[in-house]
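User: Hi! I have a protein structure encoded as tokens and I'd like to know what sequence might fold into it. I'm fairly new to this, so please keep things simple.
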């Protein structure tokens, strides 16, 4: 199951890389580069840090071809669609994050590194590509703006590392993915509630002031 979810994560991260290319206004080659960095960069960094060569997309070339295919389709969609419907992309991005944190931690555990280093490798897998993409585009790293992203990734990695000691493989994977999704979605819901409350308070204050002025005028 994790293999298919991992493929899905590669496709989603490739799409996110293409969207960054659209904001920068670079050419198609730049779009492919952004997609490759976002989808494959984290896993490449992880394999280099673990000393696993050739890196995963050279051992399993389907990862590279899947990312390229998804990037080309995303480029075509963004180019020919006047108003692409991408408002729900964060849902897919969150699932990609959950899958990559689990797969990265899993690879590190299989390399027989410590639990703490395994979680760190999961973080590198999930966020390393995005950091490389932002560095290439001279952008502020996304983790500075989306701190809940880091919290959810850390929590998911810790849950998987702990669950893998007690549960069978697939159950540990599902548990960690659900935990990551719950933290990310919960944080987003709280952020939306807080924004709504902050927008409502000035209106309530104005209403009270208007009511007070009406009472005084009488």
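Assistant: Happy to help. Inverse folding works backwards from shape to sequence: for each of the 218 positions I chose a residue that suits the local structure. Here it is:
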């Amino acid at each position: 199951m994790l293999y298919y979810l991992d493929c899905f994560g590669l496709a989603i991260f490739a799409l996110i890389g293409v969207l960054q290319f659209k904001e920068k206004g670079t050419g198609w080659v730049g779009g492919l580069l952004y997609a490759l960095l976002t989808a494959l960069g984290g896993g490449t960094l992880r394999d280099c840090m673990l000393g696993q060569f050739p890196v995963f997309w050279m051992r399993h070339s389907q990862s590279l071809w899947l990312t390229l295919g998804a990037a080309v389709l995303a480029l075509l969609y963004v180019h020919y669609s006047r108003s692409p419907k991408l408002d729900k992309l964060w849902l897919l991005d969150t699932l990609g994050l959950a899958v990559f944190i689990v797969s990265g931690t899993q690879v590190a555990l299989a390399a027989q590194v410590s639990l703490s280093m395994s979680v760190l490798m999961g973080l590198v897998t999930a966020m390393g590509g995005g950091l490389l993409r932002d560095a290439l585009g001279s952008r502020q790293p996304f983790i500075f703006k989306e701190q809940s992203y880091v919290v959810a990734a850390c929590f998911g990695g810790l849950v998987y590392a702990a669950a893998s000691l007690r549960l069978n493989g697939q159950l540990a994977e599902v548990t960690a993915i659900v935990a990551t999704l719950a933290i990310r979605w919960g944080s987003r819901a709280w952020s939306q509630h807080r924004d709504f409350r902050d927008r409502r308070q000035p209106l309530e204050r104005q209403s009270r002031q208007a009511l007070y002025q009406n009472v005084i005028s009488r």
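A useful reference point when you look it over: The chain has one domain: 2-217. Feel free to ask if any position seems puzzling.
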